[in-house]
Give the backbone structure.
Amino acid sequence: QITDTATAALVGKRMSETDIREPSGSTVLAVRRGETTVTEIGPNTQIREGDELLVVGADNGVDKFERLFT
């Protein structure tokens, strides 16, 4: 399952600080910033206010991501 979601709980954090994969089983594929889509996601990619994350994972993994981080 893939979802595109707001990330208010993650604003200001770098990807290395988020610990998304372990609790949710999901992976961030890209960050949408307005008209731009950032596909080169690294540990220093910072999540900014207004970003939307393109997240992929098993059905329950994406659901867990949304419960934990949105």
Notes: The chain has a mean pLDDT of 87. Residues 2 and 35 are 19 Å apart (CA to CA). The helical segments are 15-18, 21-24, 59-69. The first strand starts at residue 2 and ends at 6.
